[in-house]
Amino acid sequence: MKELIETIVKPLVDFPEDVQVNVEEESQRITYKLSVHKSDMGKVIGKQGRVAKAIRTVVYAAGSSQQKKIFLEIVE
């Protein structure tokens, strides 16, 4: 899943080397924290959050086969 997020986000940003995905796993949920360069934040979020919503939709669909709930957070 981490590779999927990186594959989606890296072509969108100007600084692909700054893309980081951290994983926090708990008993009932897995949280992926996406971190990008400060100037790329707008590109990842998109107008009115459309790009972020699209990324989340793909990630949630790919993770639907797992027993745990999946969350994607975009952090600064």
TrEMBL record:
Protein name per its UniProtKB record: RNA-binding protein KhpA
Entry-linked PANTHER family: RNA-BINDING PROTEIN KHPA (PTHR34654:SF1), UPF0109 PROTEIN SCO5592 (PTHR34654)
Entry's localization field: Cytoplasm
Annotated HAMAP family: KhpA (MF_00088)
Ranges that cross the membrane: none
Record-linked InterPro entries: KH_dom-like_a/b, KH_sf_prok-type, KhpA
Pfam families: KH_KhpA-B
GO molecular function, one term: RNA binding
